[in-house]
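Revision sheet: structure tokens.
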Amino acid sequence: MTTPGTLDLVKDGATLASDEGALRRMQWRARRGLLELDIFLQPFVAQRYSGLSDAEKLVFEELLDLPDNTLWDMMSGRVINEDLARASLLEMIKTL
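Predicted:
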């Protein structure tokens, strides 16, 4: 059962409408105050976010919860991240 305006297609048990909604939320959350972060995060969300595993999506959300300067310090290598999942995702973002 769908409501008017939603897609009736199902993909892996989730509606495409909810997938598109999640992608739009991440695109909005990835808009940052630092242009340097936008340059990396916006293309990453557009091109790779949908293909991330659920665990990687959670790590990405944790990264987006960080203050801009902290996140930029991690992305630029000024701060070494010892969390393997974060370090892996940061590397994925930087190499897009």
